[in-house]
Design brief:
Distance between the termini: 22 Å
Radius of gyration: 18 Å
Number of strands: 0
Helix content: 40-55%
Structural class: mainly alpha
Shape: globular
Length: 198
């Protein structure tokens, strides 16, 4: 279990092992996991540390016949936790997150604050509470994910993806990919990404 972070986390795997994971939508960390994201900022819990915090996750760790079974278990777990939660992200937090996403991470905190009629300090606090990240860190992650989708799904060249995602140049994008993902734009990892709707 990793909290909000500005770097990647290596997970040790044995030969033949497989895993599935879920990246929670910004603002949904507390809804699904029951604690503010800032409490796990930059942290990674493994094994007993995870089960100590969330004992019901033990059911996710039972061996499975294939990745689809593991994925199905994880989807059911997230949906159940979501249905049982009464936590809601404040409307201001949702609006600021949406505006930053819509801009591809290009809006500055001063612009976000002005758009929503609040001070920069308030906008920064609201975003930190909802995501566990500073506005600059969250914007960098949005930009990284946009570039990744442009490369994977739209098959843009690294230079074109860097331009479209708003990086200064291709080498800037490469540095961000290495820092956030642990890989380069030229060597994307082989993973299957699935979106859980609703």
């Amino acid at each position: 279990m990793t909290g909000p972070t500005t770097g990647y986390c290596d997970v040790p795997l044995e030969p033949g092992a497989a895993f599935v994971g879920v990246r929670l939508r910004p603002g949904h960390f507390q809804r699904i996991l029951g604690l503010e994201p800032i409490r796990l900022h930059g942290d990674a819990l493994i094994g007993a540390a995870v089960l100590g915090q969330w004992p019901d996750m033990a059911a996710l760790c039972v061996p499975a016949s294939d990745q689809q079974e593991l994925a199905g278990r994880l989807v059911r777990f997230v949906r159940k936790r979501d249905a049982e939660s009464d936590f809601e992200v404040a409307p201001l937090g949702r609006n600021i997150i949406s505006a930053l996403h819509a801009s591809g991470g290009r809006l500055r905190i001063a612009e976000l604050a002005a758009m929503h009629g609040v001070s920069e300090r308030t906008a920064r606090r609201v975003l930190l509470r909802a995501t566990g990240l500073t506005p600059k860190a969250f914007a960098a992650i949005i930009q990284f994910h946009r570039a990744l989708r442009l490369l994977r799904d739209h098959h843009l060249s690294p230079a074109d993806a860097a331009f479209e995602a708003g990086f200064a140049d291709q080498s800037h994008m490469t540095r961000v990919f290495r820092r956030l993902g642990g890989f380069s734009p030229a060597r994307l990892p082989e993973v299957t990404l699935v979106t859980i709707s609703d």
